[in-house]
TrEMBL record:
Its cofactor is NADP(+). The keyword Protein biosynthesis does not apply. Catalyzes the conversion of GDP-D-mannose to GDP-4-dehydro-6-deoxy-D-mannose. It comes from Mycolicibacterium confluentis. Keywords: Lyase, NADP. It catalyses: GDP-alpha-D-mannose = GDP-4-dehydro-alpha-D-rhamnose + H2O. Belongs to the NAD(P)-dependent epimerase/dehydratase family. GDP-mannose 4,6-dehydratase subfamily. CDD domains: GDP_MD_SDR_e. This is GDP-mannose 4,6-dehydratase.
């Protein structure tokens, strides 16, 4: 049975496309859930059981399941647990799967290479094998990453030879090739979105952009007076996450599965990001930023700048928000959050000193 988009399952007489999102509690998962709900989808999310709440980014979407016309459902699951993933597939019968769950922090992947391979690499294999074994005719999106390009010179596109430089990048490459192999070997609809860095006010606070914008808000408010950073010469292609999840959806609407790069096409160094962020509030970053070598990576990806010509041509995707505007959006959001007393936001450890230096 192939319940592709537009021919989806029927519930209560109406036609509803049913999506399954792994990693729904993350930055991208939360924006994607909003997007799909706004398009009339029934959305099922996989969340990890945790001893603390991890649903903060999606709490606003929650609807009591006893209400009428509920279209948002959560299920416990973990990419380490193939049996559970397979039973969820058989229970939910999704038309589209967006596989976003991952140990997504590059620096952490050097500390936990085995765990990262298990979750980020093998997790994809478990899900694809579950789809194959249950015989589902669904469409599958794999969250591939520009980190797979590693040391390959920019601009990078779908034809660039991969040269990953971290356990995370290597794990993503395993997942990427596994998705392609299942497409070729079994005729399954699997598509890879090779996404360059994309950020937002919902970005985890140990990624460099959010770390900076949150620090700017706190320094401006007089709550902090220094910011410890690693390699600020690295160059990234930073876009705006809500636009990238729209790209994910477009990728799965193609008649034939394919792989696409999504990027803005412009590179900025971390140093330039710092300048833009501090300038936005009238401060000089050089008065606050200090160097801490514990934030360096054993091998660094020096520069990634994407070429998303194929996505523009074939799926009509083009980013509108570029890095300077992104910086303003994020700084303003962190200033607002601080003023509203929500500065402890999503990923801030209660006791930073207890945590390994990861971001
Ligand atoms: P994120 O904010 O770190 O979210 C990761 C999600 O994966 C969270 O929902 C997390 O759950 C979940 N997760 C982690 N380990 C899991 C496990 N063992 N089982 C089930 N779920 C697990 O990442 P993001 O920025 O939204 O990125 C989404 C995906 O795109 C990731 O695969 C990432 O590697 C990839 N990607 C991101 C970018 C980017 O710039 N953002 C670029 C390219 C690719 P908890 O909330 O419980 O931790
Ligand atoms: O924000 P980052 O940690 O992101 P990174 O390593 O590019 O990875 C992110 O983007 C990937 C897309 O290519 C995703 F696949 C991945 O899941 C993740 O979302 O670091 C960006 C750059 C690096 O070069 C890092 O060395 O910033 C540099 N940096 C300098 N000081 C720092 C810091 N990064 C962090 N996290 N913290 C610092 O203090």
């Amino acid at each position: 049975m192939d319940n592709g988009p537009g021919e989806a399952a029927s519930t209560g007489g109406s036609i509803v496309t049913r999506a399954l999102i792994t990693g729904i509690t993350g930055q991208d998962g939360s924006y994607l859930a909003e997007l799909l709900l706004s398009k009339g989808y029934e959305v099922h999310g996989v969340i990890r059981r945790a001893s603390t709440f991890n649903t903060r980014r999606i709490d606003h979407l929650y609807v009591d399941r006893h209400e009428r016309d509920v279209r948002f459902f959560m299920h416990y699951g973990d990419t380490a647990d193939g049996t559970r993933l397979t039973s969820l597939l058989a229970q939910i019968l999704p038309d589209e799967i967006y596989h976003l769950a991952s140990q997504s922090h590059v620096r952490v992947s050097f500390d936990e290479p085995e765990y990262t391979s298990e979750i980020t690499g093998l997790g994809t294999l478990r899900l694809l094998e579950g789809i194959r074994q249950t015989g589902l005719g669904c469409r599958f999106y794999q969250a591939s990453s520009s980190e797979m390009f590693g040391s390959a010179p920019p601009p990078q596109n779908e034809l660039t030879v991969f040269a990953p430089r971290s356990p995370y990048g290597i794990s993503k490459l395993f997942a990427h090739w596994t998705a392609r192999n299942y497409r070729e070997a079994y005729g399954m609809y699997t598509a890879n979105g090779i996404l360059f860095n994309h950020e937002s006010p919902r970005r985890g606070e140990t990624f460099v952009t959010r770390k900076i914008t949150r620090a700017v808000a706190r320094i401006r408010a007089g709550l902090d007076d220094e910011l410890w950073m690693g390699n600020i010469d690295a160059i990234r292609d930073w876009g705006y996450a809500p636009e990238y999840v729209e790209g994910m959806w477009r990728i799965l609407q193609c008649d034939e599965p394919a792989d696409y790069v999504l990027a803005t096409g412009a590179g900025y160094s971390v140093r330039e990001f710092l300048t833009l962020a501090f300038d936005h509030v009238g401060l000089d970053w050089q008065n606050y930023v200090r160097f801490d070598e514990s934030y360096l990576r054993p091998t660094e990806v020096d520069v990634v700048i994407g070429d998303s010509t194929k996505a523009s041509r074939e799926i009509g995707w083009a980013p509108k928000v570029h890095t300077p505007e992104l910086v303003r959006i994020m700084v303003d959001a962190d200033i607002r959050a601080l003023a509203e007393g929500a500065s402890a936001s999503i990923d801030r450890p209660a006791l930073p000193g207890w945590y390994p230096a990861t971001g």
